[in-house]
UniProtKB/TrEMBL annotation, chain A:
It comes from Lentzea waywayandensis. Keywords: Cell membrane, Membrane, Transmembrane, Transmembrane helix. It comes from the Bacteria. This is Monosaccharide ABC transporter membrane protein, CUT2 family. The chain crosses the membrane at residues 29-50, 56-74, 81-98, 104-125, 132-150, 170-190, 217-239, 251-270, 277-296, 302-319. It is found in: Cell membrane. Pfam families: BPD_transp_2. It is a multi-pass membrane protein. The lineage of its organism: Bacteria, Bacillati, Actinomycetota, Actinomycetes, Pseudonocardiales.
TrEMBL record, chain B:
Keywords: Cell membrane, Membrane, Transmembrane, Transmembrane helix. It comes from Lentzea waywayandensis. Pfam families: BPD_transp_2. It comes from the Bacteria. Its main location: membrane. The keyword Transmembrane applies. The chain crosses the membrane at residues 20-39, 51-74, 94-118, 125-144, 171-189, 220-241, 301-320. It is a multi-pass membrane protein. It is found in: Cell membrane. This is Monosaccharide ABC transporter membrane protein, CUT2 family. One of its GO terms (molecular function) is transmembrane transporter activity. GO terms for cellular component: plasma membrane.
Length: 323, 322
């Protein structure tokens, strides 16, 4: 009797611990954002101003757009290391076609993004190369290609209509923030309400089973990487417009790290089979808030980087799969 | 019937193996031969010495990376650790030769050890853990250099500078250090039980665990090695440059991974050679050298060519394994 009681007590204890871990995995990012907001409201001067919030959101918009695509790719148990390079490619394409009008330039940049993503997807789906390796080739070569296209130069842009994209606003909301929000809604709809979304999660959960169940695995994978590519290109276009210059050398540098961090912090597991769009949005906001908090309290870049590293490790530690 | 069919299969397999193992070597020989004929300056002793010296720093890092990749992992922190190692060596040089050499090895080795502990003990993905330490090491570097504003110089007459600039028959000491490390690495990989554990860990981790291979310990050692070697490469570079340059090493991890893969080591783990990695270093450096010789060509073509090479190699590996 005593033994059974102890056993069931242990079991309850374990399941409470497991439940707590699961709750932390699911809601940790929201709690962390709330805590940081509260901290800043109390201890940071000029934090609760409209201007500050607008600045933070504008800075976070490109990261969010890239992270949305990354969340889908990670949902298929993949990863896309080439997003920063694709942003650089998009930035390099813009000045080439800006003469023909901003719309042509943007469309060309997005086409390059789709092609780059589909190329990654084909390598992963058809050739069967690990995602990390397949996208590594484009990470190594893509930025070089962008620099070759731009002849290594930073090009100032003067097309007013194009620059409006980065500086303009609608009813006080910056256009880039609007686009990022809209894309978040689209991706959320795509994952939760479409067949494609279900197939994506199925492929990530168990690729073999998905193949045996007759799902178009290859088409889903190519589609997901293409979406990730085009989203990276959109982020590249917006960031270029905000910078008022095409700068392929620095555009999107280490963006893959920021995007993966945001997705993982937001509770999407690296093992695939699950995509959390709202979590990803809050993951981006959390990392932006962390950076803003550190800067506003005059902590140097060095400390900020080390703290970000610690946060990444902590988030992945909490979210890691159990053996 | 059986006697006629059985030899055919190993022959095809052997051919595949030769292509996989020697593909990079054949490409290197061709590149060198063509460059020698086309560019008169390529074959000059000065150029070859310079080529070998430039390659030696990358080779030291790539040797550690080879071990990591054979266990099925990846180490993205080496570029940052390389820069950190250089800065630590330059700072330490004011306290003498031993401090200048020991400080980068110990600190970078410790960060490698932490990488290994996190990866082996907590089951986190290697690329995420080492991405975080990429950030951490850069942050640490900025912290000890007054946010990158301070470049530590190494006294020209110190013994430590000799380590980077000294020569035998015109060939720099780092070349010999890299060569010794490559031979040592090859021997450890192929002649010791630790080497066997490295292959077993990457080949089939679950089976290795069941067979009693100390998988966790092997991983920890391998990442510690990689960190230490990156620190050493940084120290050698600092000795050569006579200062701890803060901005070097960005993206160097990609070069290191590329040369390992081009050298025939499988990124899925379980297979690879140090010799292949050394050949991979040679190939990338020769390509870089040729692009510089052409002069009119944008130096950015280097990374494009590396990327294309990497792509061809992984696609070929994949197709040949079918």
């Amino acid at each position: 009797m005593a033994q059974t009681t102890t056993q069931s007590a242990t079991r309850t204890a374990t399941s409470t611990a497991a439940a707590r871990t699961r709750w932390l995995q699911d809601n940790g990012v929201y709690v962390a954002v709330a805590a940081l907001l509260l901290f800043n409201a109390l201890f940071t001067a000029n934090f609760l101003t409209l201007g500050n919030f607008t600045t933070q959101l504008v800075q976070a918009a490109p990261v969010l757009i890239v992270a949305l695509g990354m969340a889908l790719v990670i949902g298929t148990e993949g990863v896309d290391l080439s997003v920063g390079a694709v942003m650089a490619l998009a930035a390099a394409i813009i000045p080439l076609y800006l003469g023909a009008g901003p719309l042509v330039a943007i469309v060309m940049a997005l086409v390059v993004g789709v092609l780059a993503g589909a190329f990654n997807g084909l390598l992963v789906a058809k050739v069967g190369i690990q995602p990390i390796v397949a996208t590594l080739a484009l990470l190594v070569g893509g930025r070089g290609l962008a620099l070759v296209i731009a002849e290594g130069q930073l090009v100032q842009l003067h097309d007013q209509a194009f620059l409006e994209l980065g500086t303009g606003d609608v009813l006080g909301i910056p256009i880039s923030v609007l686009i990022a929000g809209l894309l978040a809604l689209v991706i959320a709809g795509l994952t939760n309400r479409t067949t494609f979304g279900r197939q994506l999660v199925a492929v990530g959960g168990n690729r073999k089973a998905a193949t045996l169940a007759g799902l178009p695995v290859n088409r889903v994978l190519v589609g997901v990487y293409a979406i990730c590519g085009v989203l990276a290109a959109i982020a590249g276009v917006l960031a270029t417009s905000r910078l008022a210059a095409s700068d392929p050398a620095d555009m999107g540098l280490l963006m893959e790290l920021s995007a993966i961090t945001a997705v993982v912090v937001g509770g999407t597991p690296l093992t695939g089979g699950k995509v959390r769009v709202l979590g990803t949005v809050f993951g981006v906001i959390l990392m932006q808030l962390v950076r803003a908090t550190l800067i506003k309290h005059n902590l140097p870049d060095s400390i900020a980087q080390m703290i970000q590293a610690a946060i990444i490790i902590a988030a992945v530690y909490v979210a890691r799969e159990r053996r | 019937m059986i006697t006629t069919t059985t030899p055919a299969v190993p022959k095809a397999a052997a051919r595949t193996k030769v292509l996989q193992r020697q593909g990079a070597a054949v490409a290197l020989v061709l590149m060198v031969a063509v460059s020698w004929l086309v560019f008169p300056r390529f074959g000059s002793l000065d150029n070859l010495r310079d080529l070998a010296l430039q390659g030696s720093f990358l080779a030291v890092i790539a040797i550690g990376m080879t071990f990591v990749i054979i266990t099925g992992g990846i180490d993205l922190s080496v570029g940052s650790l390389y820069a950190l190692g250089g800065v630590l060596a330059a700072w330490g040089s004011q306290y003498g030769f031993l401090a200048a050499l020991a400080l980068p090895l110990v600190v970078c080795g410790a960060i490698g050890l932490i990488n290994g502990l996190l990866i082996a003990r907590t089951n986190m993905a290697p690329f995420i853990v080492t991405l975080a330490s990429l950030l951490f090491a850069r942050g640490l570097l900025l912290a000890i250099t007054d946010e990158g504003a301070n470049t530590y110089k190494i006294a020209t007459d110190s013994a430590f500078v000799e380590l980077g600039r000294g020569t035998v028959l015109g060939f720099g000491y780092p070349i010999f250090i890299a060569a010794v490390l490559a031979v040592l690495g090859g021997m450890i990989l192929n002649r010791t039980s630790f080497g066997q554990n490295v292959f077993a860990t990457g080949g089939a981790e679950q089976s290795a665990i069941l067979l009693g291979v100390p998988v966790a310990k092997t991983k920890i050692v391998v990442y510690t090695m990689s960190g230490t070697l990156a620190g050493l490469a940084g120290a050698l570079t600092a000795a050569y440059l006579q200062s701890g340059v803060t901005v070097i090493g960005v993206g160097l991890e990609l070069d290191a991974i590329s040369v390992v893969v081009i050298g025939g080591t499988l990124l899925t783990g379980g297979m690879g050679t140090i010799l292949g990695t050394v050949i991979g270093v040679g190939l990338i450096k020769v390509i870089q050298n040729v692009i510089n010789q052409i002069g009119t060509l944008d130096s950015n073509y280097q990374s494009v060519v590396s990327g294309v090479f990497l792509l061809i190699v992984v696609v070929l590996q994949r197709i040949l394994r079918r």
